[in-house]
Design brief:
The complex is a heterodimer. Chain A is built from 8 helices and 20 strands. By secondary structure, chain A is an alpha+beta fold. Chain A folds into 2 domains: about 190 residues, FAD/NAD(P)-binding domain; about 140 residues, D-Amino Acid Oxidase, subunit A, domain 2 (D-Amino Acid Oxidase, Chain A, domain 2), CATH 3.30.9. In chain A, helix 1 crosses helix 8. Chain A starts with about 20 loop residues before the first strand and ends in a 30-residue tail after the last helix. Chain B is mainly beta. Chain B has a single domain, classed as Folate-binding fold (2-Layer Sandwich). In chain B, about 10% of the residues lie in helices and about 40% in strands. The chains are: A alpha+beta, B mainly beta. At the A-B interface, strand 14 of A face helix 1 of B.
Chain lengths: ~400, ~80
């Protein structure tokens, strides 16, 4: 595996223009995917993607790259199911190798409560065309021989929940493939360009452009696909957001010499682990308790998560921690994203991605591109609008996030 | 060393002993009572900078304490 192949990304850089049709704030997966689908599906190529640092350098480069659709409510099933379908075709679609690998997602059950919630979820998944099966304990043991089925004597495994379509892909490659695709068709990408303010109409009902450190740019449609500092950007448009930003930590160990195929998560112990293409074991768990904007990685998370991982997978005792890092998660109150139109004319949002953003990149890009092109909230994301809170139609699905 | 909160009853204790609590600060500009209820239920200031917040000492004296914390570098600025 030659990581340097990844540097051969072909992007063209442009001077900022005065006017665009669409400006996308945030050059992460969601912003780039929207630019990609605007160009490929709607023939809108006069688009600028504005990124404060470098593309894919925020949460798109800090996540744990898991792709799955084992959600618990029909609206989310439709949305994430579409996303998984698009991911399975994304290598062919973008003509780039994304290191996409179907693995299966195995959730371990330790209690009767886990079992009941899993059976319910498996029914919802299978009903919506994304097969999920309940496995017995011996089947789980055969699938992952490394597991300590007694859970260190404290968390015995009574069964498993296997989501067959669970997969992983290389996050940087996904970002770059989408960026290249959009860029090739004419979309501009401006790195190291920070949005300082939004240019609004006089009465504040309409967005007209953005003020950046590289000058003003005007557009009738502006998408805020910012991760972390979303409240700051939306407040420039006079909007309040149901978002709290929490840091989320993850870490990888050194190389484990054997193939470890499924993504393993525990429903009680709140950790999940998968093997990267380099053989490193990649682990994540839950967000930090207090909202914050710092990228500090702490020992107590490492201790807590590693302890849980070693309880279930004793072989990990022999591994060493290589890297630990932190990303900023925009947590919505109902653990579902907030997408599409806002009360401000021409201002669209893509936020509330919390700990479940990477798997949704293609579906969110596709739906937001359709929303921007037509001016109507796309069907798939209709339940996920900002107006759902006032309507008391929240999409509560915390149990599906895996990390909370 | 991990982050510590000075509890007025127990002294310096690690953050892991506490549970985070929001202090609602609904902007004065929202005047309609229904709108204020909605804001209280779902919307957050999500401050980048110093904010006032409550912490519950769950593994200690089990009392609420108030602090001011800078969310940019996650540092406690003031114990109240």
């Amino acid at each position: 595996m030659n990581e340097f192949q990844e540097r051969k990304v072909k992007l063209k850089w442009h001077e900022p223009k005065k006017t665009y049709d669409v400006i996308i704030i945030g050059g992460g997966g969601h912003g780039l995917a929207t630019a990609y689908f605007l160009a490929t599906r709607h023939n809108i190529t006069n688009v600028a993607v504005i990124e404060r640092k470098y593309i894919g350098g925020g949460n798109s480069g800090r996540n744990t790259t898991i792709i799955r659709a084992d959600y618990g409510i029909p609206e989310a099933m439709k949305f994430y199911g579409r996303s998984v379908d698009l991911y399975y075709e994304l290598e062919k679609e973008t003509d780039r190798w994304l290191m996409f690998k179907p693995k299966g997602m195995l959730r371990l059950m330790h209690s009767e409560a886990n079992l009941t919630s899993s059976i319910k979820r498996a029914h919802v998944n299978s009903e919506w065309g994304h097969q999920t099966d309940i496995l017995s304990a011996p089947e789980v043991a055969r699938m992952v021989p490394e597991l300590d089925m007694s859970g260190g004597g404290k968390y015995p495994v009574i069964g498993g929940f296997l989501h067959h379509e669970g997969a992983t892909a290389r996050h940087d490659r996904v970002n770059w493939a989408l960026a290249e695709g959009a860029n090739r068709l004419g979309a501009h990408i401006h790195q190291r360009t920070e949005v300082q303010d939004l240019i609004m109409s006089e009465d504040g009902s309409k967005v007209k452009g953005v003020r950046t450190n590289k000058g003003d740019m005007y557009a009738d449609q502006v998408l805020c696909a910012v991760g972390g500092h979303v409240t700051k950007v939306t407040s420039m448009a006079g909007l309040r957001m149901p978002i709290r930003t929490h840091p989320l930590q993850a870490f990888v160990t050194n190389h484990y010499e054997r193939n470890f195929d499924p993504i393993v998560a525990s429903l009680t112990l709140h950790f999940y682990v998968s093997q990267t293409a380099r053989g490193e074991m990649l682990m994540g768990a839950h967000v930090d308790r207090q909202p914050a904007y710092n990228y500090r990685a702490g020992y107590d998370f490492l201790q807590h998560c590693a302890h849980h991982a070693m309880t279930m997978l004793p072989f990990m005792r022999k591994l060493r921690v290589l890297r630990q890092w932190t990303g900023l998660c925009d947590m919505s109150p109902d653990a579902s994203p907030i997408l599409g139109l806002t009360p401000v004319d021409g201002f669209h949002i893509s936020t509330g991605w919390g700990t479940w953003g990477f798997k949704a990149i293609p579906a969110s890009g596709e739906s937001l591109a359709a929303t921007i092109a037509t001016g109507q909230q796309a069907e798939l994301i209709q339940p996920f609008g900002l107006d759902r809170f006032a309507k008391d139609r929240t999409m509560g699905d915390l149990g599906s996030t895996g990390t909370h | 060393m991990s982050m510590q909160i000075t509890c007025p009853f127990c002294g310096d204790r690690p953050l892991q002993e506490f549970a985070y609590g929001e202090v609602y600060d609904i902007p004065e500009s929202i005047t309609d009572p229904d709108e204020r209820n909605l804001d209280r239920a779902f919307f957050y200031n999500n401050v980048e900078g110093v904010q006032r917040e409550a912490w519950f000492h769950s593994y200690g004296c089990r009392r609420w304490i108030y602090i001011q914390r800078d969310t940019i570098d996650d540092r406690i600025v003031k114990h109240e």
